Amino acid sequence: MTQTAERALNVTTEAPPSGADGPVKRRGRLHLENVQVAVMSVENPSPEVPVTPPAQPAWAATTGKVQWHRFAILMIPAAVVAAVLVGLTAEGSIAASISVSGNAFEVTSTKLRGTGFEQFGSIDAQASRAQHPVAVSVIRNATLQSLCQSVAVGPFTLVLRAGAGSTPVSADNLVVDADQLSGDATFTNIAIGQDAGTLTEVPGTSGASGGFGEQADTIVITDLRQHTWLTTAGTFTLPGLSLSFSRSGC
User: Fold this and answer.
1) In 3-state terms, the chain is what percent helix, strand and coil (to 5)?
2) What are the pLDDT digits (tens) for 201-212?
3) What value does the mean pLDDT of the chain take?
4) Residue 181, in any domain of the structure
């Protein structure tokens, strides 16, 4: 580019002026535009065609951006399912996946009264994968007079008592998984041997389709004693609650 510019700037021309005997040499300079053209011709062999800058990669325009419509499509169904599960668990309509402890506990009550009763078989499992066959008793609304619950903790026994006064313990959507139960029971409008998958006394709760089940409109059990692996409830009200350790249980 430098040599071309120098040649463009220093030019010798010959022109015979009028009245002269011979040619006269003249030195002059080209216009600045000519120099610029010469320089351009070196940088771009075709000055009439503009140089096109290289195109950016397709991904450069979207780097760091989130496809929000795709994110919403994935998240909305998951949020709906989670909300339904949380709602049903809070209402006691379904039992969350719970690993039971290695210790069952005793539950006693001088009298249990309930409306909306279902019962069917199931399996409770520990984290160690040990399994316990249980009878699942579900009561839509229940009251328990003089409730006592005890469980072994090392060499001691933890004892919980409530409802010994005029106000009994109350529970909604009570679910009890027990492998032993005793007492004097009275049922009204009971159906024994019904398909566990078709039970309807407690909306949203039933056993495995084809399994053995029973249900009744009401249930009353006096001198109740249960050997229980798991108890859940939508609400559980314990008036006069007391908790202590002792050498003996309920």
Assistant:
1) 20, 45, 35
2) 999 999 999 999
3) 75
4) yes
3-state secondary structure 84-147: HHHHHHHHCCCCCCCCECCCCEEEEEEEEEEEEEEEEEEEEEECCCCEEEEEEEEEEEEEEECE
CB 37 within 8 A of CB 7: no
What is the rounded end-to-end Cα distance, in angstroms, of the chain?
Answer: 105
- What confidence score (pLDDT) does residue 242 get? 95
Domain count within the chain: 2
Same domain, 45 and 109: no
Contact 185, 221 (CB under 8 A): yes
Give the global pTM: 0.62
Spatial separation of the C-alpha atoms in residues 238 and 245, rounded to whole Å: 18
Residue 3: Cβ within 10 Å count: 8
110 shares its domain with 233: yes
242 within a domain of the structure (yes/no) = yes
HSE (CB half, 13 Å, CA atoms) of 99? 6
Instruction: Give the domain range for residue 203.
Output: 105-246
Q: What are phi and psi of 190, to 5 degrees?
A: -90, 145
With tokens 């979207």, the residue in question is 62
Q: For 207, list phi and psi in degrees, rounded to 5.
A: -90, -165
Tens digit of each residue's pLDDT (9 = 90 or more) over 165-174: 999 999 999 9
Q: Report the amino acid identity of residue 176.
A: V
Kindly state whether residue 162 falls inside one of the protein's structural domains: yes
Strand pairing report for 212-232 and 191-195: antiparallel
